[in-house]
Amino acid sequence: MGAVTTPSVRDGLSLLREPRFARLFAARLVSAFGTAMAPIALPFAVLEDLGGDASDVGVVIALGSAAQVAMQLFAGALADRGSRRRQMVRADLLAASAQAAIAALLWTGRATVPSVAALHALAGVALALHFPAAVGLVPLAVARERIQLANAWLAIAQATAFGLGAAAGGLVVATAGAGAALALDAATFATSAALVAGIRSASQPRAEAASLLRDLRDGWREFTAHTWLWAIVLQFTVMLMAWFGAWAVLGPIVAKQSLGGAASWGWIASAQGLGLVFGGAVGLRVRFARPMRAATLACLPSALVPLLLVPPAPVAWIAAAACAAGVGFEIFSVQWNTALHTRVDPAALSRVSSYDVLGSIALVPVGEVLAGWGAEAIGAPATLAAACAGIVLPTLAVLCVREVWSLPAKG
């Protein structure tokens, strides 16, 4: 993969002393801590508070993903036309409202599967608004030559918070209930909004004023101009459908039936967070000569998680696999975001990011629904085996694309 070491730890730490980036870093740290609780709290809320089954879990989780898919392109165009910072603030406040409302319904005993699903869909809209704005804000907050450092630090912030938040989420759900975990998530979104609101970023580049449709068409042209970009997005279309079906739906169900419940799943999720920290550290210290090759290969360990859930291995083994998956995902994330920031037209960055996210998650709702139905119809083991294949096969296939294999580092 041709890895060479890059900036010193001192150079990396100096970035955290820059006010704009420090606020962005803190916002990512806080919101990710709360966000890590939701994937644990929601399935157990449906299974335990509402008395639902695997299909109900699949539908609730899938509606959030479907809402994100439906809103994603529009969100990217809005971020490039308006203020990325303000869009992030509004998205965080919307997410805080949705999570607080679910918590209130659970606490008052008025929650139903349809009401929780509808509010989770609102949270999906918030995520769609947040992501392209967040990607586009990074190059406005740091100098171009420090973008990989910035992406690595943000990855470490998110990973650390995910690990701690997942462990805390499992414990909170087990001791105080899913409503308490979702209320904490709402509070972290509100805190993130306050932090981002105080960022004074550089001037945002904008393309010539045009209609929304033309903006989307221009964004599509920039997206399809990079073979490595759309090829890997196609890989993720299939891979994430398989991953989220296994991780977000079947994992909590297997944990409830065979691994001891929410606390055990929280520890497994926190192990993934620990892996994300390690992967972010690699991004901080290592620059790959062929970044897309390294990033794609790093996705393969994630197949170990569904493999070890069927039949369920000991919690420690599954946690180790989740840790390895986290390392790989975060190596991918740092290399991917750095490639976007250095190779894509800055004026179209949020739109391209939206096409990236839309393509990557387009089939996630399908995977989540099929995972729930599959567990009921053919059993969790067969469904998890299919998920494992859905991760490995597209990942190996995309490595055959020349640009993915040979694209050099830049910037």
Q: What does this 3D model show about the protein?
A:
The protein has a single domain, classed as Up-down Bundle (Growth Hormone, Chain: A), CATH 1.20.1250. Helix content is 80%, strand content 1%. The chain contains 18 helices and two strands. The chain has a two-stranded antiparallel sheet with strand order 1-2. Helix 2 (19-35) packs parallel to helix 7, helix 7 (147-175) packs antiparallel against helix 8 and helix 7 (147-175) packs antiparallel against helix 14. It starts with a strand and ends in a 5-residue tail after the last helix.
Query: How much is the radius of gyration in Å?
Result: 20 Å
Write down the CATH class: Mainly Alpha
Largest sheet, in brief, is: 2 strands, antiparallel
Strand content: under 5%
CATH architectural name = Up-down Bundle
- Euclidean distance between termini CA atoms: 18 Å
H and E string? EHHHHHHHHHHHEHHHHHHH
Q: Stretches where pLDDT falls below 50 for ≥5 residues?
A: none
